[in-house]
Recover the amino acids of this structure.
């Protein structure tokens, strides 16, 4: 059975895009793979995080992942900082990766913007830690959004250079599992911007903790245009908000844009938004209820994470120790 690793940052309450673009797939992959899912708190502090908020967001994200159906007994759920093997391998990878490789990373360029001199060095070496996250388990498959593709290519470059430099065949090739473009959920306020948990506008996203009333209000206020829904997919061209709402509907009903338009083409947004609200409430209601139930008992969440970290550590330690031996560290 192939081993899967994926990570998600505890940088806020997960939103509908995280669910449809990532977590829902993570849940499905549990049937056919051995899975490790990680709340990447080490990555989160590459930009400033308020300490109390970070701890709480780690609990919230874990609760939300459990509520979505991540199985912490059959698989492994843990927070990154609890397994030190990631850091030990990340240091070695800091010494394998080249400045030029990291300089090409588009996520770094976007996040650093014009203020390159003032961002943390952790933000620059972020992809090395991400490579270590995966390779410290010899995981071979990584489900992520399209935005992470370049980081996975870099991880393979690091693995190959390590193997070449030390004359071994130690780290395996990683196969990205890029989740389809249908799963790219856009902001409810601007159909050309990605829905994000860090968008300053609450109205731009559906959080996985939103109740029925909040969902209804956000969908009612979601930006649209005055035309009714088209009957053909081509009619969505140049209408990003219409495309986004029908895309969300399609993802939640396991169909595509054409399927949604066959059913709803010709309707005005008033009617369609009602149908979409009912669907979202039916699908997300149980998740947000379960998230809130779990959050009422932080001790249980923490013991789930502790158990996951212990089992992750047992898998990672022999691999990082072998990497250290190959590098030539004296074991005393
Ligand atoms: P992040 O919230 O940036 O840590 O992303 C965690 C995971 O959710 C990654 O695999 C992203 O690609 C995915 N993701 C985040 N936002 C969206 C979105 N608006 N649509 C689809 N997938 C998303
Ligand atoms: N960089 C990823 C993101 O922002 C999160 C992440 C960290 C990750 N380590 C990982 C994803 C390892 C996959 C595998 O979405």
């Amino acid at each position: 059975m192939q081993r899967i690793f994926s990570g998600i940052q505890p940088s806020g309450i997960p939103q509908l895009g995280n669910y449809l673009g990532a977590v829902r797939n993570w849940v499905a992959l549990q049937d056919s793979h051995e899975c490790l899912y990680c709340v990447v708190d080490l990555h989160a502090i590459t930009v400033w995080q308020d300490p109390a908020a970070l701890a709480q967001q780690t609990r919230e994200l874990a609760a939300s992942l459990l509520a979505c159906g991540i199985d912490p007994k059959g698989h492994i759920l843990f927070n990154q900082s609890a397994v030190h093997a990631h850091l030990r391998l990340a240091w070695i990878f800091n010494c394998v990766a080249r400045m030029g490789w990291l300089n090409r990373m588009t996520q770094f360029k976007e996040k650093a913007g014009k203020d390159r001199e003032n961002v943390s060095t952790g933000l620059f070496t972020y992809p090395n830690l991400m490579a270590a996250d995966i390779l410290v388990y010899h995981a071979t498959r990584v489900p992520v959004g399209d935005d992470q593709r370049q980081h996975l290519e870099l991880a393979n470059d690091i693995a190959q250079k390590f193997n070449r430099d030390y004359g071994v065949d130690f780290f395996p090739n990683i196969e990205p599992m890029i989740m389809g473009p249908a799963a790219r959920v856009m902001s409810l306020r601007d159909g050309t911007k990605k829905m994000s948990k860090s968008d300053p506008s609450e109205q731009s996203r559906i959080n996985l903790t939103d109740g029925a009333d909040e969902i209804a209000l956000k969908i009612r206020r979601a930006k649209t245009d005055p035309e009714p829904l088209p009957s053909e997919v081509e009619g969505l061209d140049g209408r990003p908000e219409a495309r986004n709402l029908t895309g969300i509907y399609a993802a939640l009903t396991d169909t595509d844009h054409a399927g949604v338009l066959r059913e709803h083409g010709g309707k005005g947004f008033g009617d369609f938004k009602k149908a979409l609200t009912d669907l979202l409430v039916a699908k997300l209601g149980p998740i947000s209820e379960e998230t809130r139930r779990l959050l009422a008992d932080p001790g249980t969440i923490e013991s789930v994470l502790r158990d996951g970290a212990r089992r992750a550590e047992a898998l990672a330690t022999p691999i990082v120790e072998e990497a250290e031996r190959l590098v030539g560290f004296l074991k005393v």
In short: The two ends are 36 Å apart (CA to CA). Residues 2 and 33 are 6 Å apart (CA to CA). The chain has 13 helices and five strands. The mean pLDDT is 95.
